[in-house]
Amino acid sequence: MAEGILKHFHGDKIFVDSAGLTAGEKNGYMIEVMDEIGIDLSRHSSKTINSLQDTSFDLIITLTPETQHAAVELTRWMYCDVIYWPTFDPDTIRGKREERLIGFRQIRDDLFNKIQSKFPLEF
Fold first, then answer.
1. How far apart are CA 45 and CA 23, in angstroms?
2. Taking residues 19-47, what's their average pLDDT?
3. Rg over CA atoms, the chain
4. Distance between CA atoms of 123 and 116, rounded to whole angstroms?
5. Is 107 helix (H, G, I), strand (E, B) or coil?
6. CATH number of this structure's domain 2-118
7. Is the model's pLDDT at 57 over the cut of 70?
8. In sequence order, what are the residues at sequence separation of 6 or more whose Cβ sits closer than 8 angstroms to the Cβ of residue 29?
9. For 73-97, what is each residue's pLDDT tens digit?
10. For residue 120, what pLDDT is reported?
11. pLDDT at 123 over 70
12. Cross-strand bridge partners of residue 67
């Protein structure tokens, strides 16, 4: 979701890529809540950190403690800022469809607000 939001608003100005420790499956709830704000992630595929082609970064934003640790290790010998934005794991949301959508919307909106704060839109 974070990659989609950042690319949507700033993809023409900055290079954005996302990766995790493991590649995940597409999540229908994620696709649906992103579509609600006009961002199509139906063709998005997840990547692992090890599969990234480029390893020169200016900034890495991590969303889990595990990826924070991996990013710190990855950047030990390079100059790169690493920011940790603790984010609730959407895969742990249980309940009926609407309850799960509410949880995914909260995560989406939290990421949206953090991104807009760090990377404001220029007018």
1. 8
2. 90
3. 15
4. 13
5. helix
6. 3.40.50.2300
7. yes
8. 90, 93, 100, 101, 104
9. 888 888 899 999 999 988 888 999 9
10. 92
11. no
12. none
Least confident of 24-33, 35-44, 51-60, 84-93: 51-60
Per residue in 52-75, is it b (16+ CB within 10 Å) or e — as a string?
A: eeeeebeebbbbbeebbebbeebe
Domain boundaries, the chain: 2-118
**Residue keyed to tokens 């649906």:** 32
Concatenated DSSP letters for 60-95? EEE-SHHHHHHHHHHTTTS--EEEE-----GGG--S
pLDDT at 68: 93
Could you tell me which of 97, 113, 121, 117 has the C-alpha nearest to residue 29?
97
Q: Tokens 């290790």 label which residue?
A: 73
Place of tokens 């974070």: 2
Say how many residues make up the chain.
123
- For the segment 95-119, what is each residue's pLDDT rounded down to a tens digit? 999 999 999 999 999 999 999 999 9
82: nearest Cα among 110, 55, 57, 50: 57
Q: Which amino acid is at 12?
A: D
